[in-house]
User: Fold these one by one.
Assistant:
Number 1:
Amino acid sequence: MLLWLVFAVMSAGVVVMLLHPLLMRRDRDLATADGAGAVYRDQLAEIEADASRGLIGAEEAEAARREIARRLLASEAAHEVPLSGPGSSTSSSAGGSRLALGVALMTGGLVPILALLVYLQAGAPGLPSQPIAARREAPPVNAEMAQLIGAVEKRLRENPEDGRGWDVIAPVYLRLARYGDAAHAYRRANALLGESAKRLAGLAEASMLAESGRVNDEARAALKKLLEIEPGHIQARFWLAFALEQDGRLGEAMADYQKLLADAPPDATWRPMVVERVAAVQSALGGPGPASPSRESTDVAPSSSASTLPAGPTAAEIEAAERMNPADRQAMIDGMVTGLATRLEKDGSDLAGWQRLIRSLTVLGRKDEAIAALDRARKSLAAEPQALAALADLAKSLGLGT
Amino acid sequence: MTVEIGHFALILALLVSLVQTIVPAWGARIGEQRLMAVATPAAIATFVLVLISFLMLAEAYVTSDFSVANVWNNSHSAKPFIYRLSGVWGNHEGSLLLWILILVLFGMAVAVFGGYLPASLKANVLSVQGSVALAFLLFIILTSNPFERLDPAPLEGRGLNPILQDPALALHPPLLYAGYVGFSMAFSFAIAALIEGRTDAAWARWVRPWTLAAWMCLTLGIAIGSWWAYYELGWGGWWFWDPVENASFMPWLAGTALLHSAVVMEKRESLKVWTILLAILTFSLSLMGTFLVRSGVLSSVHAFAVDPERGIFILGIMIFFTGGGLALFAARAGALRQGGLFSPISREGALVLNNVLLATATGTVLIGTLYPLALEAVTGAKISVGAPYFNLTFGPLMVPLLLAMPFGSFLGWKRADLKAAGERLLFAAGIALVGAVIALAVVQRGPWAAPLALALGFWVMAGAVSEILFRARFGQAGSAEVMRRMFNLPRSAWGAAWSHFGVGLMVTGIVATTAWQSEKIVALKPGERAEIAGYTLEFRGVQPGRGPNFSEEIGRLVVSRDGQPVTELLPSKRLYDAPRQPTTEAGIHVALSGDLYAILGDAQSDGGHAIRLYFNPLVRFIWLGAVLMFIGGAFSLSDRRLRVGAPRKARKTAAVAAE
């Protein structure tokens, strides 16, 4: 509310400033008369001063005086016939006033309205400032944490061969989003203490996040070693499949994802994430794939709607999205939404999924699609009054009509 | 909330600059006072709004508000306060906002201090200025919005390039931009003059302070950039003919020419058409500099494709203003009446020579900068045009310029006596010769041309001194009279002398450093010694250190000369925390006779360290010269007098008849 008040005051101030000269009565402006003449008269005065101080001789002064006098005459002659036309001196009359009033009305109306329209397109009025100090104050643990990190860092500078120190600090860096540092720490810990499943997984995650979510060579190597140490490690399998997807080897990625799904216990929290990848790969491959994946997703759907709410993108995915450039981020978000939509087309009984889809589409500004999704959800869930009520609430809160 | 206020202020500024572009120009066209008068409050409002916007972005940087994408991309909460602040313009979006801020600051200055201007000229000038602001505000809002938000906000920022974490970042871009953008004033005045069809001595008088202020800022900005590259990049050089450097150097050359031709126009009403053209070209070169640096076209032509939107947008702005300006010039230049005549040997003639040489020099730099880009765009071949090209083309052009420079100050307006001027410069010529002989005797090595080039520097410096002495009638009048005359000299005369002296000083510095630099690469173990240029350096090993956001290895070198201890050099290698990047910090011993410059290299397998040593004789003169040019400009700017060309030789009857 305060924000809009500030905007209003700013706009009003600007409008007042702009309209002031337009609405003021102005008879004849003296300033036009003779700017150039003033310059030449000053020049003449300077000649006198120079001559009296003896900087130039009397004859030189006389010659200069004559030249300037000629300029002065020329400028005055030019003024009698203004370039802008003969009507200029009389236009401050009634016609001029009406014109000024019209311009004033246009300016006063359009400037604030257009500013507001552009701002509504580009701005984020609901988002408060988030200075780091305020965010650090929120959990007081953070201050201690910072001290602790400082102490460990100091010890590591003095004794860089301390593998345990690197091992302790690595996950902390990771949590603080200092991915480069985290990858470095994991690398050192792996080298000094030997490779363990935990450290390899950490290294893979940190170096991926450090590169905007790209599964780079270092991460791939770490994930492969991780699979040697611990065959069937879910995270490793998932990210390796994701790496295949990134390389454009969609078929292989799909096969790996499906193997993962086949091995997944029905209530696994990571299951929806894999399902979404499957859907995304499917749509990338062009339309619904072979029979098996669609059967797969129909198998999956009831269990996911029966279990806890789908987790949505994991923290890691969000982080990855944040680190991407805007175009990639948009592509990733679009991929997720499309995946979700495809899944719901096939199995419409997942209320939470519908809710998420509608919300996402609204946030993305694709309001028409959101409304269409709302209609489809109502049709799919027509037999469940509770679900319909929930949808109605959602629609109201998002302002999607009744 | 503050971030959003900044965003809204920026959008409001866009709309106000739209009003500033249209309404006053329309008013000037139909002669309606009230419409013209809108220019003043509009220019003030735009400035206030952009200032609010800039302050809000700065606030987000200082408080590390990572919900702002721009802050998150370029800052880090562990950075010291000063770099969090200067980081505001250490990136594409922020530096553009600074560019616009300075642009509208100039606009506001005209609005507030331009009361003496005829109303329609002022309206047209501010309208053109408003259109430049409009173009860049559109650019920033559409393609480079610094107020884009992230939700949820990341925990920590990505940090600023360590090379930019330096006090020079606080000064270099603002000064450079003040120079670039200041030339927009000359442009706006030129366009307004073409629209109104008025170009006279008074016009030149009104443009002068703006051009001069811009030129001063650009001079200092380039010098600080060169100094920064010298101590931070660790190559021991001070100028690399890098395209980014050339991008700032071209407007400087053109601006210097403009400054001199505007003097002719102000005093004699000559060179009108050329001055107007130079004003348009100088700003076009500034725009091109902005385009080259900001579009990414420079690092590689392919960077263009990475963000085609931005590059093409700036290219469009550049084409619009350059093309529009030149088209208007072509249409109206014929209507401009020519002013006073002059003979080739005269002050005017000397200034024309200055302009011809400077314009040609600008052209050579332009070709050297754009040719590789064009070639890469067309054939894909990557070539680099470096120092050899510029030394062969730019260097020879500077020789006649420097030779003629002292003559120019001794020639009278309209027509002059070259022989008399030569006689008055005998003293300066003597000094130059003696200086060259002494240099040859002292150094006894290096290229044969170096002492001659050095003599050029002495010649220019001595010429500047002789001019002041001559005008004060030194040697002809008593000392009290000489003092009185010196005080009475116009400040613009002092300004010219200081600036010309600065040029000479810079030339000596450049020649000495280029010809007689010593370089040595050694591998030293602790306790071992190396010698360079008469200094003995003893290596005392390497110690770890820790700064606010970096860890470093500091090498210690104890310097002595003839057994006397001189100083300690502490070159270091830093590794920054975020982003994790190394930098080298040179250890520099500063002395007027030359800098001792040490860079710590990598550790060797045998426990030693590679160390690069340089001795750069008289290198400080280069930047000192630039500072003198700045001071000269300030003198001239503070001169309230309105200069008039009084023909010095008393053949006035003939001169008058000639007109």
Number 2:
Amino acid sequence: MKSLCLSAGLDALTSLRARWFQIYTLIFGGIVALFFLFGLTESRILGFIGLSRLLVTYIQLTIAIMPIFVLITTVRSVAGEREAGIYEYLLALPVSLAGWYWGKTLGRYVVIFAPVFLAMLGAVGWASLQGIEVPWNIFGYYTALLAVMAACFLGIGMLISALARSTDMAQGIAFVVWLGFLLFLDLILLGVMIQGKIAPETAVLMALTNPLQVFRTAALSLFDPQLIVLGPSAYVILDTFGATGYRVFALLYPLALGLVSALCGYLVFRRGDLP
Amino acid sequence: MIAPALQFNRVVKTFRRARVLDGVDLSIAAGERVALIGSNGAGKTTLIRCLLGEYVHSGQIRVHGLSPRQHRATVLTRVGFVPQLPPPLKMSVGQLVRFSAALCDAAPRDIYAVAERLGLDAARLATRLFVQLSGGMKQKLLIAIALGRRADLLILDEPAANLDPEARKTFFELLGERLGHATMLISSHRIDEVSALVGRVVEMDMGRIVLDDVVADAVALNSVVDCRVRVKRVEAAFAAALSEWNFSGDTSGLDWTGEVSGADRLRFLGVIARYTALIDDFSLTERKL
């Protein structure tokens, strides 16, 4: 436990000082600030106005930015530290491997989730001060969705870091993984389905295993509960899960994917050469 | 029969197809001081990493009877390690000291005290990033972390390479204070760098041990040698070299006196040897302690 706490604290403090964290914080803080500045809360789309409109746009942008940011920064710093000889020195101290790995994961999780959440919290705080109504159900669910998204891609990033023996290799794999998720978003699958190359059920199944698509659909489901924009796929999703069931699935599945990935990463890390 | 402090049995380490350690057998008794020497690529660093439980390998390594991989925390609590190259740690000096001390159940003030003896006011530099320190300062801090706790196995990889003569002298004194209490494995690619520190030399080449010999050196680690040098003419480069060793010259600039750590005299003689043609008179006298 001591190893875990110390490693988590060390990684969080080191990350706070890193350039990537400053850029990361600036991006998410900046997005919210710009939304307010350009009056997004006063515009209307699909009947959404005020803070709901801001949160809907914010989560869509976060889904686009956060995964690649988390993947690349995680593999760069974790694999980079190993390559630079930092592991050789710090792992010569009596720190348990489990404490080190999970502490590092935990510290990093706090650091990547905090700016995204705080930016959203800041928006809610500002809206409250301005007398704008706060949609607490959307805020609560989006917070959970962001927390799960951070865990999912952090777990995948930790697995890639454990597998790759160099920073370049780790970055390459991370990029390919992200690209793979991106290629199999609904539009590509729709195209493949139209061409009749795969069965509709297979396409929907693929969409449901793609965490990026799961987040997109879950974010949509709050302001479009019937998932009309998804077309016929909505029937499969809603028939299988139901509206609430899908929202629960969208939290549990990526979380499980992230945890299983991180666990596999730990097993690889523990079994092989450490530096 | 007392179990050896360190035991290597047929240790083999292979990277892809390269056999970096090729069946190393070595036994080191508690309290022994062993130099691990060899050219670059001989396998010294790999052997040390296996010993620290960082590399998986075939064969067996035991530290006081325990596997460093399976009993990491227990084994590494007893180990003080100084790497050859300071890692680019992006944490402050204070964070590094607190982190190390907390893991090793040591007191940060003990680490700061050792750093102070080495000429590094680490407490004052607590907020400075480790990577921003000079090479010598980093080395002093890493030595302080290794020696500022109750480690009875010191694994030192070229530990004094970046130190100035004064800090080297203190470093030798610190090692001298551990004689009999700690087992030391000191790695270097040059025997003259470490011969005075050890009682045994193990040479590696191509992943094998090719020499295992005793060093007959009567000079104690904490001994001091008084030195006097007289030169034929004033030479700025020579004066600068001796000033680095804290020697003082007379008003003529021809007579120089100073003291050298007994363990460092071979290195000092190497410096003097560069100016052989300039030397008129030279004496070394071991001080009676």
Number 3:
Amino acid sequence: MALDLVRIDDRLIHGQVVVGWGQPCGVGFIVLVDDAVATSEWEQELYRMGVPPEMDVFFDSVESAARRLPEYRADRRVGMLLTGDIETMERLVTAAPSIRTVTVGGIHHKPGRVARLRYVFLTPDEEAHLRALAKRGVTVTAQDVPAAAPLSLDALLAGDGVG
Amino acid sequence: MSESDAPALAPKAILAGHGAFAEGALSAVAQITGLQDRFIAFSNMGLGPGEIEARLRETLDASGARLIFTDLPAGSCTIAARRIAKDRPDVVVVTGVALPTLLSFVCGSDVQAAVEQGRKALTVLEVPRGA
């Protein structure tokens, strides 16, 4: 499978993704799954601008991403799939149950969210949705950069915002 | 030198980036020129995309700055700054900034000239061999 990294990150394409993961892991393409971005040329151009020319970016809705998943997996390059929130990832996993691992890479502070890690803040509802993903057999971990060790879902949800 | 002879100060600008990039770069600007107060340091640390954009807008309004320097083309500060520039045509965004550009700008160059200074400064220095 060439879609090696499936990540939830509210910043979508940003420095940590393009440089932090992109360079050491040799990422050749990014699949950005977001229903709003998938229908906006301006948003797509915004995200494409910071990506080096040798890295392809594909924009999909949840529906089109699920449909095109076999195509992405057949790609020999290293690929990274991104959603901006847990709800979108949950819908994608429902539409494409073959996704077996999900990394929480960055969900930042908003009212109602509690700090679990330095880079992960969650509402009780979002925590329940992550647990629901795990109950469906998806391995959920948290990891912001490749140099950090991945944390289990239990460790993530037990966090106090410091780690 | 009388007050009227004093060189015009560079316009205010925001320097935005990852971690303590802006703070660190401004400490170098301070050491070299003493003109660090022409910049407002901004970090994306711990902020979601909506919060980065909202705080950048607040910083622009509060400071009167119309120029945003950012560190990385793909960075979340750059994405937010471009969103702002979309509905604020008076705002200019410069990305990929390093110290030579900041120094050139703060010493009076216009934005294009400062960017060019930054480009020229990025060089692989050849070590003299032999002799």
Number 4:
Amino acid sequence: MNAPTPNIFAATPLARKKQRREQLARAVFFTMALLLVVPLVLIVTYLVVQAWPVLSWEFLTTNPKRGMRAGGIWSALLGTFYLVGFSLLVAAPIGILAAVYLNEYAKDNWFTRIVNLAVINLAAVPSIVHALFGLGAFVIFFGLGKSILAASLTLAIMTMPVIIASTKEALAAVPQSFREACWNVGATRWQTIRHVVLPNSISGILTGVILQVSRAAGETAPIMFTGAVFFKAIEEGNLFAYGLRDQCMALSMHLFTISTQVPDVPHGLPFATAVVLLGTVLFINALAIILRVWLRSRKKW
Amino acid sequence: MTKRGHREIIVEWLIESVIRLCGISAILFVFGIFFFVFREGGAVLFKDFKFGEFFFSTAWYPSSPSHVRYGTLALLAGTFSVTVLAMVIAIPFGIGAAIFVSEFCGPKLKETLKIVIELLAAIPSVVWGFIGLTVLNPLIIRLFDAPIGLNVLNGGIILALMSVPIIVSIGEDALKAVPDSYREAGLALGATRWQLIYRVLLPAAKNGLLAAGLLGVARAVGETMAVLMATGHAINIPTSLLDPVRTLTATIAAELGEAPVHSDHYRVLFVIGILLFLITTVVNLTADLIVRGVRKK
């Protein structure tokens, strides 16, 4: 019994090699994931640092001045507010009802498949093609001219898939037994939806609506030819300074204009505009995320 | 039947009709988009339109007084080069990140990473363009000693960052769809996680990952503002990464404002729109078919 027994649990060279490879793979994939986080942080920090000297309450509430080389972003900010608001008014009801149809009424057949494909396709149409559509349909064919109305309708159609997708998900998360219980006490289909399905999925629907707002606020191409103008001065401090048939300025378009079209813009101005736009969009998105996390934590079923 | 019953039935019927109408609205919108874009651009297609010149000539002189040319080859090359570069960067990183998120990290980190990726996806394209203009542009000039930093490289990097989120999220879905029993079987045989990924998960999820890549391509091809601002506006076929180019989307955005309504130039821009619509539709439907194929299995 003196001969040393080999320790059968010691790591063999093969096992060590396997372990090393595992570590390596882990490190590589971790770096890849990290490289997605780093740009976001770097970019936001850089933009904010560059914009800091210009950012102020006054910047938000004064019109651009001297050929957009001075002043603030008031008319662009209000314009974006109008565009997003009206596009939401159109997109939210149609989008939510479309999702109700797809989740509650539609049977699993070829027609429903085509509707679903259409929604996917609508989400994938390039923004510039939406712009062409908005120009051809709303501005020219329906005679709305270049106006807030035409631009909002274009934005509404472009962002509707966002609402449809998240509403559908929210509706699908309501357990089938809730519906069955409601039908069993004699409620009709619509009564069931109205009193059981919608109240139980309202937060999910709200998330979709919030995401639509964020998407619409950032878009540039679809409004460029349908209602947004390079420059327009409006009364400062008046929230009702735009009419529906007016053209308006928009934050996204304003950023494009002062960073590419206007020479000799002071360094901080486009940065400040970018930060306001980015801040708005990220803030709205963060709201949606918080809402979703909160919702998941208090789910009853 | 009571009076109340009648009213209820009518209300029910009315509401159901409205819902059905909204339900099929997506179809109407898609056809509407094609119809109205075609309505504006179509006229030029039936008036001795030179398809050969349109696809195979690099001469794009839409507002030349003497010989007007509408050749989109250089624009196609612009879109192609920027998209390919973006995908060369975005697909490995996107799928690598998807693997990390789905296989390596704990639930807390996973949640955080997914939120970051969602925020990355939310950055508006005009802000990306602005970043290309103000951050990448000087960086490329300094690093590569290039005369101008607005080129294929700049646009490619920006587009890669823009299309990575969709690749990660679809890729992660594809990996999640692989049954856990596959993982358990692999682990039971003594495979490390890397061996499991390489030998089991990637082959099992390859269709979903392919779809993720395709959706990234569709995103990159259709992107407008970012490439308009970051690729440098020169119509030529790029021979190196540091050549400026112009894409199909950027051409529409840059010239539509100047083209007189219903002129040939205006209509040709709509024809480019039809082309873009068709490209992204085909790519997306292919991706959808692949994903659906995965789900059926």
